[in-house]
TrEMBL record, chain A:
The lineage of its organism: Bacteria, Pseudomonadati, Pseudomonadota, Betaproteobacteria, Neisseriales. Its EC number is 3.6.5.4. Part of the signal recognition particle protein translocation system, which is composed of SRP and FtsY. SRP is a ribonucleoprotein composed of Ffh and a 4.5S RNA molecule. It comes from Paludibacterium purpuratum. Its main location: cytoplasm. This is Signal recognition particle protein. CDD domains: SRP_G (cd18539). Belongs to the GTP-binding SRP family. SRP54 subfamily.
UniProtKB/TrEMBL annotation, chain B:
It comes from Paludibacterium purpuratum. Involved in targeting and insertion of nascent membrane proteins into the cytoplasmic membrane. Acts as a receptor for the complex formed by the signal recognition particle (SRP) and the ribosome-nascent chain (RNC). Interaction with SRP-RNC leads to the transfer of the RNC complex to the Sec translocase for insertion into the membrane, the hydrolysis of GTP by both Ffh and FtsY, and the dissociation of the SRP-FtsY complex into the individual components. GO terms for molecular function: GTP binding; GTPase activity; signal recognition particle binding. It catalyses: GTP + H2O = GDP + phosphate + H(+). This is Signal recognition particle receptor FtsY. PANTHER family: SIGNAL RECOGNITION PARTICLE RECEPTOR SUBUNIT ALPHA. Keywords: Cell membrane, Cytoplasm, GTP-binding, Hydrolase, Membrane, Nucleotide-binding, Receptor.
Amino acid sequence: MLDNLSNRLSGVVKSLRGQARLSETNITDALREVRMALLEADVALPVVKTFIAEVKQRALGQEVIGSLTPGQALIGVVNEELTRLMGEHNDALNLAAVPPAIILMAGLQGAGKTTTVGKLAKLLKETQKKKVLVVSADVYRPAAIEQLKMLAEQVGVEWFPSDASQQPDAIARAAVDYAKRHYFDVLMVDTAGRLAIDEAMMQEIKTLHATLNPIETLFVVDAMQGQDAVHTAQAFNEALPLTGVILTKMDGDARGGAALSVRHITGKPIKFIGVGEKTTGIEPFHPERMASRILGMGDVLSLIEDVQKGIDQEEAARVAKKLKSGKGFDLEDFKAQMQQMKKMGGMSNLMEKMPGQIGQMAKGIQGAEAEKSMARIEAIINSMTPLERRKPEVIKASRKRRIAAGSGTSVQEVNRLLNQFEQTQKLMKQFSKGGLMKMMRGMKGMMPGM
Amino acid sequence: MFSFFKKKSENQIDQPTNPTPELVQDAVESPRSWTERLKSGLAKTRNKLGKNLASLFGGGQIDEDLYEELETVLLTADMGVDATEHLLREVRERVTLRGLKDSAELKETLKSVLFELISPLEVPLEPRAATPFVIMMAGVNGAGKTTSIGKLAKYFQSQGLSVLLAAGDTFRAAAREQLIEWGERNNVTVIAQQGGDAAAVCFDAINSAKARGIDIVLADTAGRLPTQLHLMEEIRKVKRVIQKAIPDAPHEVVLVLDANIGQNALNQVKVFDEALGLTGLILTKLDGTAKGGIIAAIAKQHPVPLRFIGVGEGLDDLRPFSAREYIDALFD
Ligand SMILES: Nc1nc2c(ncn2[C@@H]2O[C@H](COP(=O)(O)OP(=O)(O)OP(=O)(O)O)[C@@H](O)[C@H]2O)c(=O)[nH]1
Ligand SMILES: Nc1nc2c(ncn2[C@@H]2O[C@H](COP(=O)(O)OP(=O)(O)OP(=O)(O)O)[C@@H](O)[C@H]2O)c(=O)[nH]1
Ligand SMILES: [Mg+2]
Ligand SMILES: [Mg+2]
């Protein structure tokens, strides 16, 4: 699925490559692909439609500047727009209330409310030294109260007893009273899962809200949720003055398009994501990461955008496959990789964009020099016969002289290339997967001056 | 979308002791009124959608706008791009082939194309094939596994079969207590251990069922996401250990799917099938506004029999899957 989406979007880029401007016609095809990608990511259709309309408007009005291809400009707009919609920054919990600051949880059945109460209680206790009380107003689900009790024990916060025979509202009143008398900083109220169309249950939580007057009313959403996210979000948003959203089960491989749907409908910030069943499995929300997850491009979207200007993904995949099948990496492949690098705007440009570890390696590289030697390497390979490119071991002294003369280089340079190539070939064999990054590292090893 | 049942189940929760078998029979065996109720449930959904399918199909010409509306209906039901395109292509072909002109005919065409796609999933479970008949439940977190076990226990008992539950979720807080409560509601034995591992609990439960001559063993497992490789390995082990107790068990490996989940559900079917060899599905939470259209994608790409649907949180909120009723509820 992940590959699928990346392919779709790289397909978009490709189909637009070489066109000077985004026109009404070429953008329509490309936007249809983006539309499909968003639908596959479970962004709700009405939201997709609005989104596409906005992107289209912005893309058409936008000039394609500098070295950007029209495809990049489009993907850029898509990504920007997505990030913008996800919220500019991540919002912390608001606890600025006369204690106790009350947090009310709401959401569909099985979304992760109770587990999230445990996680947040732990977080507030440990990172903000808050005195936290938790209580369950779920009198329906078997053992729901017991579940919260056990979680409270696990994270070491106090649990306020409740019982399935009580009314949720009465439970809430008693808990608030207790929290006040015992000077708790925070009171977290868990509730039963409910369907948005269940009027009695929606009324129940409205009443709870009125009783509690919580400073935070958190809507808990399963990251795997599909198209119905819009209806659910709308109904909960209308019933309750939500203050934030928590997206659970983000440790799965769902693209999480529901995040966009819910944001779009409620306009409320996504405050945290759940990334595991354990009580430590919670993280702040990062809008730009979510945007690229929905697009299926990981954190290196900006790099990929640049790379896709020139790289031929299929070619890279072909080479990777070849390596994997044990057939070996020949000089022909080497040259193809080199040409792709050139299209990407050269090594120096590319290295700057590499994240973390690779960026480190890029330090101290003399970009211009590396590019010059790339040109010479290419000239050498160009002077070889197809057989020589496939089987470099046939290149003996006389062939070396011919190649050097043909490429305007020296026999030493030819030797050096062959040596470096051999090293790289060994390196390449170690890669189980021929990802782009790995390829790049392989290339780096053989560039003089790198 | 089957929201009517919510009310019904609430009534019955009020009197959970002594569930009367007649009531169950009634709910299961009056398909016509059931379909009617389905429709009334869907009417609410329609209003929420702001879309009236009846008017969409209410006579008039077949044109591109109509196809686009159709596409909207299928996509917003979570059928996914691939299944939606497939269905629309088939419909277009038949419309051309048969020279259909009227939008009402288009609706019937779509219904029959969809029926052809999903009716192969309608394969009822045959729990009398072995004794004890071991059913192992699997699925992502919060899908409805434990609740479905509670409902299945009642369903099988109403068919005169004896049931035993195995509390194989030894991980989640109070998972065991939750299953024990379902056991009490059904008045059936629950085999559970303090701590311990899932495989051991299931092994014990099966041996206990053999000793007592129990007909059905329902084994609960902890929720897990397909990305949690160690947990996927753990559930493989549960299955292997079950096989040690009875070589041809588990006789049914059920993946429980939440109708609210979007395209990832298809992936869940693929990954759990690869790990366990699925023999059946249960689609839960159809009493909400989610349509569970992903079953169309499952039928097309990775078919596994859909045994039951869940239509509420009560003991009786389980129905054998009927493709016809599902489609009627979706379109009429
Ligand atoms: N992998 C993963 N599992 C989660 C996460 N959050 C919750 N879960 C699991 O999801 C399941 C449901 O979580 P609960 O906390 O019981 O959900 P709930 O919303 O309280 O459910 P109801 O009270 O029945 O409506 C449990 O198995 C949790 O362990 C998460 O971020 N990642
Ligand atoms: N409305 C509705 N709710 C359901 C249905 N099936 C289950 N639920 C609810 O969904 C929530 C989760 O159900 P569980 O049975 O605990 O799910 P599970 O798969 O066992 O969850 P874990 O063991 O935590 O992975 C509970 O609140 C159930 O009451 C259904 O058909 N309709
Ligand atoms: Mg809960
Ligand atoms: Mg469970």
